[in-house]
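REQUEST ID: PR-0412
SUBMITTED BY: lab tech R.K.
PRIORITY: routine
TASK: structure prediction, single protein chain
INPUT:
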Amino acid sequence: MENKEAFDALSEIRDMMAKSTKVLSLSGLSAIAIGVLALVAAYVAGWLLGYDGLSQYYKLKLLTAGAVVLFVMCALVVLVFAKRKAAKNNIPFKFDLTTRKMLWYFILPLLVGGALCGALILQGHYGLTSSFMLVFYGLALVNLSGYSFSNIKYLGYAELALGLIDCVTIQHALLFWSLGFGVFHIVYGIVFHILYERK
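STATUS: complete
OUTPUT:
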């Protein structure tokens, strides 16, 4: 009996340590919402690129502004769903050291990739921007998996693979972008929700 009690105590300590070093309030529903937003954004971008009433310069400005708005909307979606999930599961939602480390390791590849894509766009080289976005986002997700649910790395690997495939294809950038940021997110979010959140 004493051995069982000791084993239970060790299991409880291990669970507490895992929770203290992981951010477990990320939500599958937020991934689905982000995927839907990305598909809507891709549709609008496709329409804008095909519209003849604006110059390339104004199209580029609108697309850049749209990308910033999309990023802010996605960040807010993640925040709202994470707070909701934390409250539902009685998990404290706070920006502690673990959360700050997670955000840093997630945002660093995004900042580097964003700077690289911005430099390419300023120089008029648009061809590889979608593939770089996918690759750096994939790296960010793989980094994130060390501080949250480990299976998010599979979404990261999928984004990396898709970005590398996009590097060697021509004139399908918006399709690959839609698959990576839209469809892949929706599929991952559905699977995650079924496995971990549906009760």
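NOTES: The longest helix spans residues 56-88.
REVIEWED BY: pending
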